[in-house]
């Protein structure tokens, strides 16, 4: 179990764990993911003259890293705290543990500068956005990464698709609802988008004139208007512990002082 705040932690680290291997895996898998997905949207595999090529087994990849792969699907309104909590969680896993975990963070805004730069915010584009990120997440999880995917992903059907992509590959998947009331996220409004939406300058903005379908049974539910950033992170660490991704070690809980330099909740 994850120790609570203020407790001490003793941890066993696999002798075969090497951070250099982890970094190499990040680079190689990142290149492979983008090459495999490209920018083409497709409901079905259009090519008929292709073959899936096997390589190192999933189990051997996970053993070389020291833990199993998993995707944390961070969903919530703009301004709910997805990016803030995701970055703090990334730091907790990579820099605040006795040894770093293999983590890759997929931020919805960041991906729209590259992989998803051809997508807008129509329902069809949002669906394709989720499809691409779900497939990339699966590839990283297959290699043993703890994937932190932060997207508004407002539609239940799209989030279910992301879940099924992982379930069909027998990979663990946790839906993490980063929740805050509309009044709270509007008061934060880090990019001024709610103000513009209320003024009619932005159309189809989630939570204002476009729907957000709340998760009904998320594995993790965090109210960022009631919890501090470290508390939110520790709730997610507890969930990771319960899934059993460890091979031979446990998480170190995040302390309040660990996030003094973190920005206020301002995630998309």
Structure description:
α1 runs antiparallel to α5, α3 (82-94) crosses α9 (229-243) and α5 (123-142) runs parallel beside α6. The chain has nine helices and five strands; from the N terminus they run ααβαβααβαβααβα. The longest helix has 20 residues, at 123-142. The relative contact order is 0.22. It is globular and about 55 Å long. By secondary structure, it is of the alpha/beta class.
Write the layout of secondary structure elements.
Layout: H1 19-37, H2 58-65, E1 70-75, H3 82-94, E2 103-107, H4 108-111, H5 123-142, E3 146-150, H6 156-167, E4 173-179, H7 182-188, H8 193-198, E5 220-223, H9 229-243
Parallel strand pairs: 1-3, 1-4, 2-3, 4-5
Descriptive terms for the model:
alpha/beta, 5-stranded parallel beta sheet, 268 residues, disordered N terminus, globular
